[in-house]
Amino acid sequence: MNRVVILHGNGNSHGTDDWYPYIKSNLEVIGVECLTPDIPDNVLARKKFWFPYFTDVLKLGPDDIIIGASSGALAILKYAEDHKIGASILVGTYYTDLGYEDERTSGYFETPWNWEKIKANQKWTVIFASTDDPYIPISEPKFIRDQLGSEYFEFSDRGHFGSHKNPTLEFPELLEFLKSKLND
Amino acid sequence: MNIFITASKSAYHEVEKIKLILEAAGHNVTPPNGFDNPNAEEVTRNYSPEQYSDWKAQMIREDGRIVAKHDAVLVLNYEKNGQENYIGGATFLEMFKAFDLGKKLFLYNPIPDGMLTDEIIGLQPIVINQDLSLLQ
């Protein structure tokens, strides 16, 4: 594996938000390429705009470790049903529409989840979750962990691992985990 | 698709180029209201306050009628006077009209930071990051 790609969330998120530049700069120091793109349709993060971008622009493939934050995690889960990727790191992840209309319009919930295919299309998955996440009940990442057999890191004080009003600028646990995987 | 382009006057120099690209892709494109007479507002500022107000009201109503005739609104939000991805008041009203009428709403560049950021997020535009092929 030789590339890391960070997928931001919805709600006007960007590739420069939160801890993404921290991960990118720390990886580049050790010679690992890391992309932090601004993905189109960054308000609703709809599948119909994101998947062509993954395929045609980012050209995601089996050599990529994908870090998905929030809607970015949701997107890469669904993408892995039909595409080979290297591995995925899921931060603030979920698998239901959480009862929100905006989430329903994203296009990720129109078909049932095929967890076996998601698992088979990548080497490993890991989840970072926090019990005080204001948007995601902890039952969501736990369910995904159980379906995928993911490695799982649970915190009690990280919220949604960043937000526009209260950004999280560093994420050393994720960085160290990633470095350990890159050294495998 | 019938597309109405809207932009600040400072971005008018880009309109013709974008229009040609979209027309080549098979779209019907209407340039911004006032595109053919960009100095009209400056002229009307010399009118009385009442006349200026009437003229402005007429333009806002006309903008709404134009939005209603189209399938989509494309906002060319370029940098203006150091403000990245600038969206002015008239453009914001056109965006709201598009939202209100259920039209597709595209932003050429990201949502600008400023006092309207949250409201623009609420209009749920499709940010295309300058990729015109996303106008579908």
What does this structure look like?
The complex is a heterodimer of chains A (184) and B (136). Helix content of chain A is 34%, strand content 17%. Chain A has 7 helices and 6 strands; from the N terminus they run βαβαβαβααβαβα. The mean pLDDT of chain A is 96. The N and C termini of chain B lie close together (8 Å). The mean pLDDT of chain B is 93. Chain B contains 5 helices and 5 strands. Chain B has one domain: Rossmann fold (3-Layer(aba) Sandwich), CATH 3.40.50. In chain B, strands 2-1-3-4-5 form a 5-stranded parallel sheet, sandwiched between helices.
Brief overview:
The complex is a heterodimer of chains A (184) and B (136). Chain A is an alpha/beta fold and 184 residues long.
Summarize the helices and strands and which ones pair or pack.
The complex is a heterodimer of chains A (184) and B (136).
Chain A: E1 3-7, H1 20-29, E2 33-35, H2 47-58, E3 64-69, H3 71-79, E4 87-91, H4 101-104, H5 115-120, E5 124-130, H6 139-148, E6 151-155, H7 172-182
Parallel strand pairs in A: 1-2, 1-3, 3-4, 4-5, 5-6
Chain B: E1 2-7, H1 12-24, E2 28-30, H2 40-44, H3 49-68, E3 72-76, H4 89-100, E4 104-107, H5 117-122, E5 126-127
Helix pairs in contact in B: 3-4
Widest sheet of chain B: strand order?
2-1-3-4-5
From the 3D coordinates, which CATH architecture of chain A would you assign? Answer: 3-Layer(aba) Sandwich
Helix content of chain A: 25-40%
Count the strands of chain A? 6
The first-level CATH class of chain A is given as Alpha Beta
Number of helices in the DSSP assignment of chain A:
7
> What is the CATH top level name of chain B?
Alpha Beta
**What helical percentage do the residues of chain B reach?**
40-55%
Strand residue content of chain B: 5-15%
Give me the Rg of chain A, rounded.
15 Å
What composes the largest sheet of chain B? 5 strands, parallel
What is the CATH homologous superfamily assignment of chain A? Answer: Alpha/Beta hydrolase fold, catalytic domain
> Which outline of chain A best applies?
globular
Could you tell me the mean pLDDT of chain B? 93
